[in-house]
Specification:
The chain has 187 residues and is α+β, with helices and mostly antiparallel strands. It has a domain of 47 residues: SH3 type barrels (Roll). Helices cover 20% and strands 27% of the residues. The chain is built from four helices and nine strands. A hairpin with a 4-residue loop joins strand 6 and strand 7. It is elongated, with a radius of gyration of 39 Å.
Length: 187
C-alpha cells in the first residue's frame, strides 16, 4: 500500500485565503473590492436611468378622466371590456380611478385598464348639386345618399332651380361647369 501512495503525484491545494486568478486576470480580492456598497448603488442608478430613457421613448401619458364620464373597463380575469362610469379619482394611487359598473359595483381600476368611450363628432354633410347626391360623413365614414329629383309643380318643362341668392350660379352654369360644386354643412 505504501508503494501505491508513492506513485501518486503531489497536488498543491490552494488555501481559502490565497488569491486565485480568474479568467479575466483579476484576483478574487480585486473583484470583491469592486463590489463596494457605493459602487453597487452607483451602477444600479446608472441602469435605472438607462431603463427610464428607453421606456420614455415609447410611453405616452393617458389623458385624465372626469367624474360622470362614460368609459369601458377591462375585467382582469376575462380581459373583456365592460361599460362603466367614472365616479372619482382614487386618492391613494395617482393613476387609478373609482368607477361604477352597470351592475352598480364600485371598482378601483388603473388608468391603463380604462378606455374612453368615443363621443360622436360633428356630422359633415356635403351636397353635390351636379349629381344631385348628398354625402354624409360621421367619424370618417363617407356615405353617398341619392336624392330623387322632384318635378316642379309650377313648371313641368324646366327642372327645379336652387334658391336664388346674389352672385349664386344658375342651374345652367352648374351643369356646364367641369367640376361638381360641393357645399359643406356641419350639423
Amino acid at each position: 500500500m505504501s508503494s501505491s501512495n508513492s506513485n501518486r503525484q503531489q497536488v498543491a491545494v490552494p488555501s481559502r485565503t490565497a488569491a486565485r486568478k480568474t479568467g479575466a486576470g483579476q484576483s478574487t480580492q480585486e473583484i470583491l473590492s469592486d463590489h463596494t456598497h457605493d459602487n453597487i448603488i452607483g451602477r444600479l442608478q446608472e441602469r435605472q436611468v438607462q431603463q427610464k430613457y428607453y421606456h420614455d421613448q415609447h410611453a405616452t401619458a393617458l389623458p385624465s378622466l372626469i367624474s360622470g364620464q362614460q368609459v369601458t373597463i377591462q375585467n382582469p380575469k376575462t380581459l373583456e371590456w365592460k361599460p362603466a362610469i367614472v365616479l372619482d379619482k382614487a386618492r391613494e394611487a395617482p393613476r387609478s380611478y373609482i368607477v361604477s359598473t352597470s351592475s352598480g359595483k364600485e371598482l378601483r381600476r388603473n388608468r391603463s385598464h380604462i378606455r374612453q368611450v368615443p363621443q360622436p363628432g360633428p356630422k359633415q354633410v356635403k351636397f353635390d348639386l351636379k349629381s344631385n347626391q348628398v354625402r354624409s360623413s360621421s367619424a370618417g365614414i363617407d356615405l353617398p345618399i341619392s336624392i330623387p329629383s322632384q318635378p316642379n309643380p309650377k313648371s313641368s318643362a324646366s327642372p327645379p332651380s336652387p334658391v336664388a341668392q346674389p352672385d349664386s350660379p344658375t342651374l345652367e352654369q352648374l351643369n356646364q361647369s367641369p367640376q361638381p360644386q360641393v357645399q359643406e354643412v356641419s350639423m
